[in-house]
Structures are given as structure tokens and as C-alpha cells.
């Protein structure tokens, strides 16, 4: 094939960018999606490419031939394919160093660096193969790197806009491996058409990559393992330890559960923190209209329908695929009092003109991370602007109540205090204060509203000692759109 080197340069560039984008999805269930994780992944990919460029050029100067190029491509295919089988090693990366940055660099380096180094070798090696005359060397090198960059651009668009949403992260890995094996077969053919065994071996590897099923990330029996535009989703059935009843869970990480329901009573709330959302009915009796940001498997909206029969609810969930999954697997039904909106919670607040009596905020990127744009002073102001005069905001936060793991909670509390005259924190369970747990932040637009301690104690089984407000501390920074270092806080809790 006359243009095989150019095709290899183009496709290698595409593979690198698809691998990087897909890598973020593979990492997220274990390490999260924070800026720290993205920075570590990008840095590892760029560093590996740089090493590959240098090594590929050095190797090409010694002896440039298509057989060596084929070996590079085949080996890159093996390392890409290995990601599908070794991804669960990421859960151990957290326990080796007690630092999220180090864990990210270590985990991403082990999984993605070998393949990326080899892919980085491809373009300089092909440039040496195509070098025929000194007077055209600049044009040759420029053309090949232009093709590689064009492949990277198309790979970025293809991976981000199409593949992740329609194929899933692990399927993408196997496709990339198969593509590299086929490119290796082409390079062996170009080197010597009589090397039929090597060519056949690469084709067989490509077929195996496409047909074999890598292991999952959970030990439970998975009902569904899929990727959406925003996250990796697992749905599985289990038994609730507290009640010994059958449950169905939705998770987007390996360290926690995003949502769930009792299979024998889908409208009943499963998690203690979500039951506390019903406190809004006591804080604002006979409220008319409510807003929920973040829906997961739409557990609370189902409960809302039967609990507040005279009220309406707008549900804002950024991930549109979750609505379909909730309908199919979590017994979500259409109801005229429930309006489902597929949008980022902050952009919805920015344009909102509706007045609400209650706002529930339960949006999470992964196990611990609330989207930063919903944590800031500006976001709190938008919530306040969206409330009626006696309105209330309830925000679910995962944090320690005190100690070194409580930094985000305290920062969020004082951020809300800048906007709301009356703010309280409620420990949902009786875990020790220094352990991470669900803590409900309750903010009132009116300074005249207070928490009903007797109702909390008798109806919700929450003693008065679980209600607290942090002491003022000048060292705590208010979270703003310009500066919200929640990754720093989450990294401590994650480890």
C-alpha cells in the first residue's frame, strides 16, 4: 500500500487522543474526575509522548525498517489491550501513597504510559523511513506530523462526541488495540509479504481483542455496565445490610453508591440522608413548588410524588441518559407534577426565572465531588434569588464534621453564610465527627426560620447534638467561581 506510512501516522495520532479521553473514564471510578486527576493524566500522556518521540528518532537513526515499525505497533496494541484487564489495579494506587496526586501519576503511568511511549515513537520512525533526500526532508517531516496532528484532532472529536457515548470505555480500548494490531499486520506486509505467520498473528490478536470480554470492576452481578456523556455507570442488585431486603444500586465509582431503591417498594427511600430531605415539608409547610438538582436514579422524585401530593417538582439532571435508565430499571414513571430537565444545575440557576419554595441539591461528579460550580458564593446567590421569601435550601455534603477531613464542609458553610442569614449543619448518622459521612446543609432565606428540634428528634431520629455550626475561622476561604479549590479538600477525604 503506497500511503501506508501516512495512514499509520494519522491513525496513531487518533489513537493517542482517544486513549487519553477514554482514560479519563477508566480512571474516574477509582480516582474521581477532579482537576488533579485530569492534570495527572494529561501530564503522563504528554511526558510519555515526549519520551516516545526521542526514543523513536534515536531508534530510526540506527536502522529504519517496516518490520521494526510493525513490532512497535503490535507492542503498543498489546499495552493498550492490557488496560482493559489491568484497570482494577487503580484501586490499589490509592493505598500506596497517601497523596491523590502521587496516586494519579502512579496509576495513570502504569496503565497508559507504556502504550503512549510506543505510539509516540511511530511518527519520528516513519519520518526516517520516508526520508529520501535532504532537500525534501522538511516537507516530509512536516507532512507526517501534520497528518498525526490531524488524526489527533479527529480522534478527539470522534472519542468525545461519539465513541464514549455509544460504545463504552472498555469497548473503545479493545477497538483501539485491534486497530493497532491491524496496522502492525499492514507494516509486516509492507516489509515482506512472505511473513505470513506474523501477519496472521496480528490479525488473530485483533479478532481476540474484539471478541474477548474483559472482567468488570465490581464483584456483584452487574445488570448494566455503560458509559454516558458524563460518567461510567454500573447498575447491580444486592441485599441491604440494614434491612436484609433486596435492593438495586446505581454507582459511578468503585468507592460509593450514587443512588438506589428497594426492589419490593421502589418509592421508599433507601439512604438515610435522602430521608432527611423530607424535613423540607416541616420547614415550609404546604410548600407549592420545589427544585431538585441532581437526580441519580430518580429515587427522591419517585418518593416525592407519594409524599407531597399537592406539590410540584422540577428535577434538573445533567446526564440525560440517567432518565432512560431510571425509567427502565428503577421504576420511574411519568407524572404531571414532575418536570424533568436535562441541564447542568448551575446553568439552569443562571437563567431561572421561577420562584421555588424548596431547593434540594444532591449533585455529585463522583463519590465525593460536588461540581465546583454549584459550591460557590455565586451559586449560593443564584439559589437565594430562586427562592421565595420563606424558602429553604438543603444540600447534601459528604465530609467529616470536624478535623482534617472537614475543610470542604467548613468552606461551604461559610460560603453559604455570606449569602443566607441562617445556615445549619446536620449530621445524618451517629458516625464519629472525624469520619467522612453525609452532612446536610440547611440554609434559610429568612432569618426568622429555625430548625424544629423536636421534629428532628422524634420524626427523623436526629438528636440535637447532631446539629452544629462551625466556629468562625479567618483561615477558611470562601468558595467563589474564581477560586474554589475543592480538589484539595476532596483529595484528603479520598485517601
Q: Brief overview, please?
A:
This protein is 51% helix and 15% strand. The chain contains 17 helices and twelve strands.
Structural class: alpha/beta
CATH class of the largest domain: Alpha Beta
Cα-atom radius of gyration: 26 Å
Order of SSEs, N→C?
Answer: HHHHHHHHEEEEHHEHEHEHEHEHEEHEH
How many DSSP-defined strands? 12
> Which strand-content bin applies to the residues?
5-15%
Which strand order do you get reading across the main beta sheet?
7-6-5-8-9-11-10-12
> What low-confidence regions span 5 or more consecutive residues with pLDDT below 50?
none
Q: Name the overall outline.
A: elongated
Counted up, domains total 2
The CATH homologous superfamily name of the largest domain equals Vaccinia Virus protein VP39
Q: How many DSSP H or I helices?
A: 17
CATH-derived topology of the largest domain: Rossmann fold
Amino acid at each position: 500500500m503506497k500511503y501506508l506510512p501516512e495512514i499509520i501516522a494519522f491513525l496513531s495520532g487518533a489513537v493517542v487522543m482517544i486513549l487519553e479521553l477514554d482514560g479519563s473514564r477508566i480512571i474516574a471510578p477509582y480516582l474521581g474526575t477532579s482537576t488533579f486527576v485530569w492534570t495527572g493524566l494529561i501530564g503522563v500522556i504528554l511526558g510519555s509522548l515526549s519520551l516516545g518521540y526521542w526514543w523513536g528518532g534515536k531508534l530510526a537513526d540506527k536502522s529504519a525498517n517496516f518490520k521494526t515499525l510493525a513490532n512497535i505497533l503490535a507492542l503498543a496494541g498489546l499495552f493498550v489491550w492490557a488496560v482493559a484487564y489491568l484497570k482494577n489495579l487503580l484501586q490499589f494506587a490509592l493505598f500506596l501513597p497517601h497523596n491523590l496526586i502521587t496516586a494519579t501519576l502512579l496509576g495513570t503511568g502504569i496503565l497508559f504510559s507504556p502504550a503512549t511511549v510506543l505510539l509516540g515513537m511511530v511518527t519520528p520512525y516513519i519520518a526516517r523511513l520516508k526520508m529520501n533526500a535532504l532537500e525534501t526532508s522538511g516537507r516530509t517531516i512536516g507532512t507526517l506530523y501534520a497528518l498525526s496532528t490531524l488524526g489527533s484532532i479527529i480522534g478527539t472529536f470522534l472519542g468525545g462526541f461519539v465513541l464514549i457515548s455509544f460504545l463504552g470505555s472498555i469497548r473503545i480500548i479493545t477497538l483501539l488495540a485491534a486497530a493497532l494490531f491491524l496496522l502492525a499486520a499492514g507494516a509486516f506486509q509492507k516489509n515482506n509479504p512472505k511473513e505470513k505467520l506474523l501477519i496472521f498473528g496480528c490479525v488473530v490478536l485483533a479478532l481476540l481483542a474484539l471478541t474477548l470480554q474483559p472482567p468488570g470492576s465490581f464483584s456483584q452481578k452487574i445488570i448494566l455496565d455503560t458509559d454516558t456523556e458524563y460518567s461510567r455507570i454500573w447498575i447491580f442488585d444486592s441485599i441491604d445490610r440494614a434491612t436484609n431486603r433486596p435492593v438495586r444500586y446505581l454507582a459511578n465509582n468503585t468507592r460509593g453508591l450514587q443512588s438506589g431503591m428497594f426492589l419490593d417498594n421502589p418509592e421508599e427511600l433507601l439512604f438515610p440522608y435522602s430521608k432527611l430531605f423530607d424535613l423540607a415539608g416541616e420547614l415550609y409547610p404546604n410548600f407549592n413548588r420545589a427544585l431538585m438538582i441532581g437526580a441519580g436514579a430518580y429515587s427522591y422524585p419517585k418518593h416525592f410524588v407519594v409524599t407531597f401530593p399537592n406539590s410540584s417538582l422540577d428535577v434538573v439532571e445533567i446526564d440525560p441518559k440517567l432518565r432512560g435508565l431510571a425509567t427502565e430499571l428503577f421504576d420511574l414513571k411519568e407524572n404531571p407534577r414532575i418536570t424533568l430537565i436535562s441541564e447542568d444545575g448551575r446553568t439552569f440557576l443562571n437563567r431561572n426565572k421561577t420562584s421555588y419554595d424548596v431547593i434540594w441539591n444532591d449533585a455529585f461528579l463522583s463519590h465525593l465531588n460536588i461540581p465546583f460550580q454549584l459550591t460557590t458564593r455565586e451559586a449560593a446567590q443564584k439559589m437565594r434569588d430562586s427562592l421565595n421569601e420563606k424558602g429553604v435550601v438543603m444540600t447534601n455534603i459528604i465530609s467529616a464534621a470536624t478535623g482534617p477531613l472537614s475543610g470542604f464542609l467548613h468552606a461551604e458553610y461559610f460560603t453559604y453564610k455570606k449569602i443566607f442569614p441562617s445556615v445549619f449543619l446536620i449530621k445524618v448518622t451517629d458516625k464519629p465527627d472525624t469520619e467522612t459521612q453525609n452532612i446536610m446543609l440547611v440554609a434559610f432565606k429568612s432569618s426568622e426560620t429555625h430548625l424544629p428540634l423536636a421534629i428532628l428528634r422524634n420524626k427523623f431520629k436526629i438528636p440535637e447534638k447532631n446539629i452544629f455550626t462551625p466556629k468562625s475561622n479567618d483561615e477558611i476561604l470562601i468558595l467563589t467561581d474564581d477560586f474554589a479549590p475543592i480538589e484539595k479538600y476532596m483529595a484528603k477525604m479520598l485517601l
